[in-house]
């Protein structure tokens, strides 16, 4: 994963350097514009692969979760990202990793052939690029045709492109071939890559629901343990032990504040005269214990240790909630980038045989790619690991 992040960072630095050189000193050289455009598409592909890697890891976690819970994971928030809609139905049949890598390879090969044609490369070099594109289209169409409903109808179009590409000699013949390939690439984006985000969102939502539920249950266990520990000991008197009483009161106040963020009906009192934690109106514990033990520095230390665990788990819980919105933003950025790549390819094709000016298009794709990378990095910062274990505090009943 670190290698992938490093590779993405290096690629984006190279892209921005090329773009800067293009804007300040190479505005009259079409080759530089095409090279920058291809680098922009490559950067977009690399960023998309990060989402694919994240999806694969999430899917594996959800599969493992299903084995443990038989799929019984409830959403506390009522929003499992299942309603995320990029404007197209999802494709959720089998593993998608290999076929999506092939999909992006086809997009890359198409752009290489398109820009080679637009920049006036020789028929011999065009023949090689179009041959590579044909092989890529054949692979991705076969793969997607087996998993994406309706995609198999494009297989005849792929065959027609290959025939046109093999016979092409003149520029006009290559232009006819590239126009035959465009609907296939268009469908790859519109019917596969964009709808995939619905699947990504659903899987991420299930995973986050499970993490949120685990964090919430952990917080409840910790808070109950704290309350029980407190009620088993006399409350320190403020006139005799002012600092100890102050520290204990501080623990109590912070605990109640944290619990109040996720319990809709909660009442917590630490002293041995009253203690209830209510959920749905039901008291979870019997009346206060009699014969409480003397309050000590050890008890205070145990309470503070448990409070630290409660605080940390609360931070994890809040991070899971934040991740939902950030993941939505990331998917929105990805869809926007895909649509821009699609529109740019069409713009280049429509200008075949005419002067091409790609500066604005390259800038737009680069900006969207950087935004996606920023969203992905922010997402990673808020996502966290495993729920922490309860600290050991001696023979205290849970």
Give me some keywords for this one:
two-stranded antiparallel sheet, 9 helices, disordered N terminus, elongated, 398 residues, mainly alpha, 2 strands
Describe the structure.
- By secondary structure, the protein is mostly helical.
- It has one domain (2-214, 314-382).
- It is built from 9 helices and 2 strands, in the order αααααααββαα.
- Strands 1-2 form a two-stranded antiparallel ribbon.
- Helix 4 crosses helix 6 (171-231) and helix 6 (171-231) runs antiparallel to helix 8.
- The radius of gyration is 29 Å and the shape is elongated.
- The two termini are 39 Å apart.
- The model is unreliable at 1-7, 19-29, 271-288, 385-390 and 392-398 (pLDDT under 50).
Summarize, please.
With 398 residues, this protein is mostly helical. It is built from nine helices and two strands, in the order αααααααββαα. Mean pLDDT is 77; it is low at 1-7, 19-29, 271-288, 385-390 and 392-398.
- The radius of gyration over CA amounts to 29 Å
Whole-number mean pLDDT: 77
- Large-scale geometry: elongated
SSE order in H/E notation? HHHHHHHEEHH
Domain count, please report it. Answer: 1
Major sheet: order of its strands?
1-2
Write the SSE topology.
Blueprint (H helix, E strand, L loop, with lengths): L1 H24 L4 H40 L27 H22 L4 H23 L9 H13 L3 H61 L10 H18 L18 E2 L2 E2 L13 H54 L8 H24 L16
Antiparallel strand pairs: 1-2
Helix pairs in contact: 1-2, 1-9, 2-3, 2-6, 2-9, 3-4, 3-6, 4-5, 4-6, 5-6, 6-8, 7-8, 8-9
